[in-house]
Specification:
transferase, 13% strand, ATP binding, 38% helix, 2 domains, kinase, 11 strands, three-stranded antiparallel sheet, Kinase-like_dom_sf, binds adenosine-5'-triphosphate, Transferase(Phosphotransferase), domain 1, Prot_kinase_dom
Length: 353
């Protein structure tokens, strides 16, 4: 999977930065064993397809999250230290950057700042979901801060980066409930086969290619998930599943925004406040890549509070109910298909833990 775009030419600003910025800290395995109580089960924060993550504390008292990669032994062709060094130079306040790494023996570990409010997925569907900490204001803040992070990767980072795996488990939350997007650009470090097996999780664009437009599609799904508290794909019966935008779009035709919003958010006028997030989410999740906005347009739409811009957005033909003859044609062009039985149940279960 190619994650850096071709514009990362030699002689770019990134190279200049590489000369002036210090390399990330190289941690010893002994240091990380001491910090995590030898990767004790009690320190485990979670587990994904490619890694387990442990809470730890360094001797200076700072809290860290240590990501221990699985299956590294198959990837001896990749220069781990170099890849991590390139990624760790990509810095933005809403990206979770790497503090350091360790590559001793068979172990490959990445060290990050610890995010006390864990991941967005744990609040929407996992261990914090019953507490409903995410009110409307926090959800808006998460939408904007996560959009800014991905816009930075696409439009300003050197080299430019396609995230390739935008999803709620990769949006971590700091103490102020601002997003810190993680796992960007790690395509080379993760086993390809496993990534390919996970291609029907609802976030993957119909064109199935890692690209900026593909990230926009995934981000649209994430916005709909954030507002509704529903999963990207819902099981309708034993053999059929429905994508979230297919559920949302008919409610938008009817103007029923209140029904889309997560019922755990009990606030006045909440449908109106989150309406823009829903509309932007649907624009992003369109089937045709060229119909989707860019991430910088997404940031602009989410942040702009003018009534004119909102009216412009609402007037988009996507949100008008098609006449009966048009309906089938429109369904082919927009939204997410009904998805037949697939294999992501295992991953969903892991994310909730
Ligand atoms: N810096 C961090 N601070 C706090 N918790 C973290 C941090 N990094 C990861 N986690 C927790 O560890 C869990 C597992 O992370 P990991 O990146 O291994 O997998 P994932 O992103 O959930 O899934 P996948 O990698 O398969 O997409 C996350 O969902 C999150 O709850």
């Amino acid at each position: 999977m190619k994650l850096f775009s071709s514009c990362c030419g030699k002689g770019s600003d990134g190279e200049k930065e590489a000369k002036t910025e210090p390399p990330r800290k190289v941690f010893s395995l002994k240091e990380l064993h001491a910090a995590t109580n030898s990767f004790n089960y009690d320190n485990k924060l979670g587990e994904g397809r490619f890694s387990s993550v442990y809470w730890g504390q360094l001797s200076d008292g700072s809290q860290i999250a240590v990501k221990r990669l699985k299956s590294w032994s198959n990837r001896e062709d990749i220069n781990f230290a170099l890849e991590v060094d390139i990624l760790s130079r990509i810095r933005h306040k809403n990206l979770l950057s790497v503090r350091g790494y360790c590559d001793e023996g068979q172990e490959r570990l990445l060290v990050y700042e610890y995010m006390p409010n864990l991941s967005l997925v744990s609040h929407l569907h996992g261990q914090h979901s019953a507490e409903c900490i995410l009110d409307c204001t926090k959800r808006l803040k998460i939408a904007i801060s996560a959009a800014q992070a991905i816009a930075y990767l696409h439009h300003h980072a050197t080299p430019r980066v396609v995230h390739g795996d935008v999803r709620a488990s990769n949006v971590l939350l700091n103490s102020e409930y601002e997003a810190r997007v993680t796992d960007f650009g790690y395509g080379k470090l993760m086993p390809d086969d496993e990534a390919k097996n996970d291609n029907n999780n609802g976030y993957l664009s119909p064109e199935c290619v890692a690209s900026e437009a593909g990230d926009v599609f995934s981000f649209g799904i994430l916005l709909l998930e954030l507002v509704s508290g529903k999963r990207p794909v819902e099981r309708l019966n034993a053999t059929t599943k429905r994508g979230i935008s297919e559920w949302v779009l008919p409610l938008v035709y009817e103007g029923k925004f209140g029904e889309i919003v997560d019922e755990r958010v009990k606030e006045e006028e909440v449908g109106e406040r989150l309406k823009k997030v829903v509309l932007v989410g649907l624009l992003c999740a369109q089937r045709e890549p060229e119909m989707r906005p860019t991430m910088s347009q997404v940031v602009e739409m989410l942040m702009n509070e003018s009534k004119e811009k909102m009216s412009e957005l609402e007037a988009n033909p996507l949100f008008k109910k098609p006449c009966s003859g048009e309906e089938n044609h429109r369904e082919d062009q927009e939204g997410v298909d009904v998805i037949s039985e697939e294999k992501d149940d295992h991953h969903q279960q892991q994310e909730e833990e």
